[in-house]
Write a structure and sequence with these properties.
This protein has one domain. The longest helix is centred in the C-terminal third of the chain and has 18 residues. It is globular and about 45 Å long. It is α+β, with helices and mostly antiparallel strands. Helix 2 packs antiparallel against helix 4. The protein contains 4 helices and 6 strands, in the order H-H-E-H-E-E-E-E-E-H. The chain has a 6-stranded antiparallel sheet, with helices on one face.
Length: 143
Amino acid sequence: MNASEQAKTLDLTSKIATTVNLFKTYFPDAKADLKPWKDDYDTRNTVDPDSIDIGFHFPGWSRRLQSRSLLVQIRFYRDIIDERLKLIGIEIIGFNHQGQAWRLSTVADWELEGTTLPVLEIADRLKSFCRQVFELFNLKQND
């Protein structure tokens, strides 16, 4: 779901802003898009309501990144006992002019998969970013 729609509490809004700032420390040229999904019937029926989705767009295609835009999906599940969202994984998808070029998922083995992969240094930056997002969202929330 669009990050802008998930920003319902001060705590979650702050964590979304921190996530964007963390990403920009690794990729300063990126522009954040808190509404990467269209607001239409088909999209609303396929988007995960318990995810925070943020798009990042770069000024041009990057050979080192092998993409021009990235979609960061922070995936949660809702604990039925205490009704809290708990982080289960992060997916980052790189897009070029042909569509999806690669994917990194922390749900499996944290390896990049795709037709054209970013260079090793960029892969390491993406993984470091993911580790920091895990730290951010796994902190105890004040009630």
